[in-house]
Description:
The protein is of the alpha/beta class. The protein contains 13 helices and eight strands. One of its GO terms (biological process) is epigenetic regulation of gene expression.
Amino acid sequence: xxxxSRLSKxxxxxxxxxxxxxxxEEVPPKCWPIVYSPDYNITFMGLEKLHPFDAGKxxxxxxxxxxxxxxADDLIVEAREATEDDLLVVHTRRYLxxxxxxxxxxxxxxxPPVLFLPNFLVQRKVLKPLRTQTGGTIMAGKLAxxxxxxxxxxxxxxxxxxxxxxxxxxxxxxxLAIKFLFERVEGVSKATIIDLDAHQGNGHERDFMDDRRLYxxxxxxxxxxxxxxxAKRAIRRKVELDWGTEDTEYLRKVEMHVxxxxxxxRPDIIVFNAGTDILDGDxxxxxxxxxQGIVKRDEVVFRAARRHGIPILMVTSxxxxxxxxxxxxxxxxxxxxxxxxxxxxxTSGAENPKSFKIVxxxxxxxx
Length: 367
C-alpha cells in the first residue's frame, strides 16, 4: 500500500509544495503494477504507417498477453494523461508552446505529413497518446517503489529533454518519472538509468548532466542517431557497440556492466529502458540480437534488480519491426514464469501467482 507520509517530502524540506497531480493517486492493492491504456496507440488516416515505428505495438503486447492467459480485462492500472502542470515539472513552457505548431511535431515524430494537419488534430491524435504514455511512466515509477517492480507497456522517450524533442520522443517521461519521485517520495534520492535501447539516450542524459544523484548506463550502437557528444558526458558507464553485434557479445557486456553499475552506486530505483530496436533486422538499430537474446537481456536486468533488492521500473522504448510486440510479451511472460515479476512480489495474499488477471483499476484520490 502507499505510505501517505511519503507524500509530504516537499513540506518537510521547506521547499515549495509539489503541484496537485492525479498521477500519484492511490492504486488499489488488487491491481498489478502493469500500466497501459488503449489511448497509447496512434492511429489516424494511416499516417502512423509513414514511420517505421509500429505505433500500435503497445496494444498488441496486451493482446498477446491476453492470448497467453496471463492477463484479462481486470486489474491492470490504466494510465492517465500527463497534464501541463505535470509536464512543467521538467519541460519549459517555451518547449510545450512549440508543440502547438504542427511542423515542430512533424519534425519530432519524423512523419512529414503531420505538418499539414491542424494542430488540434495533432494534439488529439499524436500528442495525447504520447502524453498518456508519459503519465503511465510517472505512475509506474511510484508503483515500482510501492510494489518492488512496475512495467509501463509504453514510454521510454529517451531522446526528449526538457527543451527539445526528437526521434519520435515528444515528452521526457524518464526524466519526469525520476523527478516526481525525488520531489514527492521520501527516501528516494538516487536513481540508476539502464538504457538498453539501440540508440543513445541523449534526452535524459542532457537533463541529468552533472546531477550526481543519477547514474546512467547506456549501451548503444555507436554509429547511429543521435551521436550526441555533449550528452555523452552524463554517461557514467558507456558501452558503445559496433554494427551487427550479436547475442553472445551483447549479453556478456550487459550482464557485466549492469552488475558493475549497481555495485558502483546503490540507487533507490532502477529505470530500465528496454528498447527492442536491438533486434536483428531492425531498420534503424543496426544490431543483430535475436528474440531470445532480448528476452534473456530483460531477465538479466530484472535478476540483478532482485538480487540487489532495488525497485525496478521498465519502459518499452524503441522497436521498429512488427514482431517486437510479440517479443515484449514473451519477455514479460518469461519474467513471470521465472518469478521475477509476480503477485507475491507486488502485493501480499496472492492466491495463485502463476495465473493472474489484470484489469483497468480505478484510482482512488489521496487526500
